[in-house]
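Quiz preparation item.
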């Protein structure tokens, strides 16, 4: 399976799994920058030698290989892509140091608060557990409504006129957030509660380079059903 593959063997390669929001953000960053790369699907139940050699500390995806040199951890990868290819595509991080700090704060908030809050939606044993977790996700996303107002300056994206770091980091979760609504029956991105965020989600998901890699909700639901069955979860 390939990303935007060049005529010759590209200098960039991504090791990942299709369902991972962290892999999605790395691929979206490459796509938005207009960079050719090869995407290699791995299997976390039987990790490839290339993955284990490229990320021997954690053995996790994504890994970006740039001329054979590995870059690990998704947010590190996104910033690396922006810094290593400044002349390609839009800048994902603003030039102003304060704006960069604000963007990094909200990108960290995705991983430090949204992700752990969402995990019980995915792993919860009972429907009550999953619904309770989904409602906590709603509370976290309400903070991103205020963040969007602060970061966007009234424009289309957290990054302003073009998608930036926060768009990419949060946007990697859009497929799973939408699947969560079906799994739990709770509207986690609710236009009534977070109208700015809901409109942003539709705009971001429709971008070239984004819509190709955000997984279909039905595919995620089927994947989650199989995964839960393997773990003995109802």
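Solution:
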């Amino acid at each position: 399976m390939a990303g935007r593959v060049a005529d010759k063997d590209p200098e960039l390669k991504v090791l990942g799994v299709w369902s991972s929001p962290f892999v999605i953000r790395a691929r979206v960053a490459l796509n938005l920058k207009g960079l050719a790369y090869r995407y290699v699907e791995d299997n976390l139940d039987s990790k490839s030698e290339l993955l284990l050699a490229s990320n021997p500390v954690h053995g996790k995806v994504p890994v970006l290989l740039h001329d054979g040199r590995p870059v690990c951890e998704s947010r590190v990868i996104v910033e690396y892509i922006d810094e290593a290819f400044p002349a390609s595509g839009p800048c994902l991080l603003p030039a102003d140091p304060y704006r960069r700090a604000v963007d990094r704060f909200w990108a960290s908030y995705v991983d430090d608060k949204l992700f752990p809050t969402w995990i019980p939606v995915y792993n919860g044993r009972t429907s009550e557990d999953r619904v309770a977790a989904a409602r906590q996700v709603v509370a976290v996303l309400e903070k991103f409504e205020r963040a969007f107002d602060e970061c966007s300056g009234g424009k289309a994206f957290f990054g302003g006129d073009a998608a930036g770091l926060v768009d990419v980091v949060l946007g990697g979760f859009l497929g799973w957030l939408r699947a969560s609504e079906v799994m739990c029956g709770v509207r986690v991105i609710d236009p009534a509660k977070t109208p700015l965020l809901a409109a942003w989600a539709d705009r971001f998901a429709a971008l070239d380079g984004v819509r190709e890699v955000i997984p279909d909700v039905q595919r995620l639901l089927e994947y989650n059903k199989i995964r839960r069955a393997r773990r003995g979860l109802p």
